[in-house]
Amino acid sequence: MSSTTLTTCSMSLQPQLQTGPQARLAARSESHAKPTSGLAPGHLQANLIVLPSRYAQDFRDLCARNPVPCPLLAESSEPGDFSSLKSHLPGIPGSAIAADLDLRTDCPGYHVYRDSKLVLDTVPDIKDQWTSDHIGFLVGCSFSFESALSKAGLPPRHAVLDRNVSIYRTSIPLNPAGVFTGATHIVSMRPYPKAAIEKVRAITRPYLQTHGECIAWGWDAVEKLGINDIDVPEWGDAPLTMEGEPLGRNWGDEDNVPVFWACGVTPQEAVMKSGLKGTVMAHAPGYMLVLDCLETDVIC
Amino acid sequence: MSSTTLTTCSMSLQPQLQTGPQARLAARSESHAKPTSGLAPGHLQANLIVLPSRYAQDFRDLCARNPVPCPLLAESSEPGDFSSLKSHLPGIPGSAIAADLDLRTDCPGYHVYRDSKLVLDTVPDIKDQWTSDHIGFLVGCSFSFESALSKAGLPPRHAVLDRNVSIYRTSIPLNPAGVFTGATHIVSMRPYPKAAIEKVRAITRPYLQTHGECIAWGWDAVEKLGINDIDVPEWGDAPLTMEGEPLGRNWGDEDNVPVFWACGVTPQEAVMKSGLKGTVMAHAPGYMLVLDCLETDVIC
Hints:
The structure is a homodimer. With about 300 residues, chain A is of the alpha+beta class. Chain A has helices at about 20-30, 55-65, 95, 145-150, 155-160, 195-205, 220-225, 265-275, 295-300; strands spanning about 45-50, 70-75, 85, 110-115, 115-125, 135-140, 165-175, 185-195, 215, 235, 255-260, 280-285, 290-295. Chain A is about 20% helix and about 25% strand. Chain A starts with 19 loop residues before the first helix and ends with a helix. Chains A, B: Keywords: Lyase. Chains A, B: One of its GO terms (molecular function) is D-glutamate cyclase activity. Chains A, B: Belongs to the D-glutamate cyclase family.
């Protein structure tokens, strides 16, 4: 189901996929198998990374040392547990983050890595790969502040055009932590008018748990971040002008500049760069886990 | 008094400047007016930055978004208060961080900035500049893990040679926060044998509140960090070989490589880059505030 063709639920007279449980159930049943931007407005969305337990403490350190790209929300209650969470959010118990949960099925798409190489791309579940030694980690997602931007009259263009957000690799190093070395920041991009940037910064600033304010903006940021080609994102869809043209080849014709936020795909990049052994799983970029708690529960 | 020529205290038969209060009193009386590396072994040392209150919330955000260079330990209990602290360390009250305290006198040297320009370099106190609108912030310092390195048989060379640590500007951007934009990471450097780097990483890793493990290492890191000349640090003393030669011009002759940690001079760089208005004060790099609490109180 597309987020732009919502129907009403006969039981509650509420639109479907308006809550975390509805979105997760739709992913679990594979009736929703596309990106989650715009789903369940106001609800937190999360990046997922699932690691062998021997890498867990180093990953917690990686998050503590890089809280902007890797804001750690919660993790499996114990190794192997895919249905209950231990919270890292002060004052919010794991059961309030997501109650009826199956980390193996509740994202609309998954990536699977073996020995740090992607071996399965956007598969519907990871039931066959999950073992009793795996720990799932939830990391905040910038989709979580998109409804605040929309309410302020600044809807992200990718949502307006019903496309996936554009996601890029940068050359900005992460702070290393144990086995996690050599990785760089991943960023998501939303174009905005230059005159709106201070407003966009202010709106997203309180969302510290979901990447917070943008980390760079303007056309000169493309080079500073070491992005090769704005029209060829490494993940997600290519950015377009409102007329459907490639953004980078038309930027002289429009007032908008690229604005970059830290992105929760960063842990997947860290896994690939660090040469982890064994099976690592993650959501497919853009295909997030929708949670029960609200964006307003975590703004500072 | 040099840290290598400690005498004994007639009252206690303990070497002088072995505790936080002793070190602060010596700075206050100007009997110790040099860098604090090696003073009061095992005690936390802190970077100081003193801001007009209107910049305080953005600075807290800057620290939350950049905890490796800017691990926030404590701040003035209220604007204008230079003698009592509000703690940011879980489980440690402000009075346990430093009880008998005067933020205006207790660093052995201070820098004073006006409208983001350095106007006073390494002055003994800031009594004339401090106002009822100023808030002091304490940020963790990498001197705090140097005794752990020394105990493991890996004493930092600058301490062995009784010099100040070498501190460099890099091109790695900070995550911006409010008024704090355009700043880059500052790093301190200690040379170590290549074979010792994993041990050095492991020893410093638990010190999350005092910059934690090194962020880059090896000669290729010099270029990656955008450091112009390893022999010309922006702050502190130039690094030397054990024979007293410039390190960079002799690195082919020795087994040691530069190892870089995030540095608490970063907030001063952020102030200068962000164009803050008014009077900002800080410790002079290397001339730290020595605290009452112990390094072991904050290791994770």
